[in-house]
Amino acid sequence: VRCSGPGLERAKVGEPGQFVVDCTNAGPAELTIEIISDNGTEAEVHIQDNGDGTYTITYIPLYPGAYTLTIRYGDQDVPNFPARLNVEPAVETGGVKVFGPGVEGKGVFREATTDFTVDARALTKTGGNHIKTCINNPSGNRTDALIRDLGDGTYQVEYTPYEE
User: Fold this and answer.
1) What pLDDT was estimated at residue 108?
2) What domains lie within the chain, and their CATH numbers?
3) pTM for the whole thing?
């Protein structure tokens, strides 16, 4: 059994990864594929029998990070598997900067609106609906935030903390 294709080495969140498993010299057996992140999340996997002893595997990972890719044929691990697979974020966020009192902890008071800035100019110079926020309180509850697009790739995010 041989495996090949770009989806064996890397993938992006939310985008299909693909590879081919060639079983033409292995005889008939069941092919099983598992792609599981280090935190236990399984990627959605589709196995297409090409009818010629090969299979096209398509998967969609939902989270970035390291995954374990297990390929078994006839209840036996395929040579070189399990293997590690790196799933990259859908967007390269390394150039995005977040700063301001609302994330630095200075001047953040209960029931007093605060803010912070997201500088995403490394991704966009014109703004748009590109960012989302998730602000968690100490209890685990979420606080709503207002995101204002400043039209130049920067965003102002305002929120009011209701817990200390």
Assistant:
1) 85
2) 2-88 (2.60.40.10), 97-159 (2.60.40.10)
3) 0.60
